[in-house]
Amino acid sequence: MDRTTTTRPAPTEPPAFLDFAAARGHHLVRTAYLLTGGDAHLAEDLAQEALGRLFGRWRKVSRMANPAGYAQTVLVNTFLSYRRRRSSSEHVTDTFAETAQAAPDPALRVTLLQALGELPPQDRAVLVLRYWEDRSAEETAAVLRLSPSTVRSRSSRALARMRTVLGEDLDALVHP
Q: For residues 168 and 176, which has the higher predicted lDDT (pLDDT)?
């Protein structure tokens, strides 16, 4: 049995993705810059996301008649989906509240942050969503893709672990 391999010549080799990204990347960033209203950092993120989506389908896209036009469509769809996400509802402002807030206790804050840092990431996420962002167990469960009973049990165990980590320091920090 002959085990030599023969390679078949490709009919027409599609352009490599890196060449396409190098050639069209600047144009995608410029278009994204205009879409975002002048946010250069967001424009770069959107262009990178669009190129990432193209890379996953590059074999099919490279055979299209107009891959650059498809890339523009992917960029616009990426921008529109970004705008629909809740995380995009933050608005940058250059004005600040006129009234000063009561200064939080820095020692308590540092101690609580250290104790949170010692928790596993999932427990930390549960505590932050439940008690810092004041979400219900159902809302937290939806965000973390857990059941509400799992959120309640994780909350209970994470709080108990924080109490043991804080130990004697908790009473001294809360009641000075």
A: 168
0.90 exceeded by the pTM?
Answer: no
Q: What is the pLDDT of residues 66-91, one digit of tens each?
A: 898 889 889 888 888 887 775 555 66
Higher-pLDDT residue of 95 and 11 is 95
Q: What is the DSSP letter of 95?
A: -
Structure tokens at 53: 């989506």
SS3 58: helix
* Cα–Cα distance, 176 to 169 (Å, whole number): 10
Q: Which long-range contacts (CB under 8 A, 24 or more apart) does 36-45 make?
A: 36/79, 42/82
Report H helices in the chain: 17-35, 40-56, 58-61, 67-84, 106-117, 121-127, 137-144, 148-166, 168-174
On whether the CB atoms of residues 26 and 52 are closer than 8 A, the answer is no
Q: Would you say 61 and 70 are in contact if contact means Cβ atoms under 8 Å apart?
A: yes
Q: Which residues contact 175 (CB under 8 A, 6 or more apart)?
A: none
Q: Cα separation of 143 and 152, whole Å?
A: 14
